[in-house]
Predict the structure.
Amino acid sequence: MAADKTSKPDKGKGTKLLKKLRKQWQLQLVALGALVLLFLFCYMPLFGIVIAFKDYTVNMGFAGIFTSKWVGFKWFEQLFTYYQFKDIFRNTLVLSLLKLIFTFICPIILALLLNEMRVSGFKRVVQTVSYLPNFISWVLVYTIAMAFLSTDKGIINEVLINHGWIKSAIPFLSEPKFFYGVAVFFSVWKNSGYWAIIFLAAISGIDSQLYEAAEIDGASRLKRLWYITLPGIKSSVVTVLILSIGGLLGGGMGGSNFEQAYLFGNTVNYTTSEILQTYAFKTGLSQGRFAYATAVDLFQSVISVCLVVTANLVARKTTGEGLF
């Protein structure tokens, strides 16, 4: 009897679920299409990771993924003993950390400033203008950078020279010491508006009665921001931070490191612009070393997984918030 009693609710729940799915069959069909695409383009390619441990060449074709000779950690050993590995890994870390710091803080500040604006029309204009660069591709961003920072008729250099502040054009796009600054600046410009919308949505979910009570108690705007707004968006901030740390080596909130390094990098600023992703791309396609390039990318992926797990654990212990 006990078994019958426990089984009846399960059948009832299953029937309700089926009815719900039948009513929403259009939405479920759309979701099914997305799942199929996710499986084909995100999960199926994971089988190819095995070539990082094999002596695979493109001439072997698809079957070579499974039939090629097993070489273990040979490609990883070559990567770690490569004479420029330390420089490439350093460039990846420095660029990623700088982008994480500035592209994480700037959207929060922008969201807080937009939330404090009382002129709704001006607020919408600023929000739209700051959001639009997110739709611009990195190729177009590089074209804009050329127009402003080029040594040959770049607007910034033209202004500086015409005012007598400098005697010769500054090579912003070719000097190694300027690469990090240029990359971080355009990352902030391109992505801050998008992430600010997420934080603004979190702010809009805060109970307005808290602000009214604080204002009655005489709390200033700064105190209301510090004691109500920031704690109110803590969960969103922690979630975005963990996801950004997980994608740190790929660019995180600042967009693709690969696209920036590939477009803004050249033979002159190579010492600071070459990162793991561009190195894997060049060795994989230019030299045809697909197994070695896969090992480079797998090394980066393993670090990313470790970072997101560590960030989640730290967030759980310090703030009580986390993804899992």
Observations:
- The longest strand covers residues 54-55.
- The CA atoms of residues 114 and 126 lie 8 Å apart.
- The chain has two domains: 2-72, 81-319.
- The radius of gyration is 25 Å.
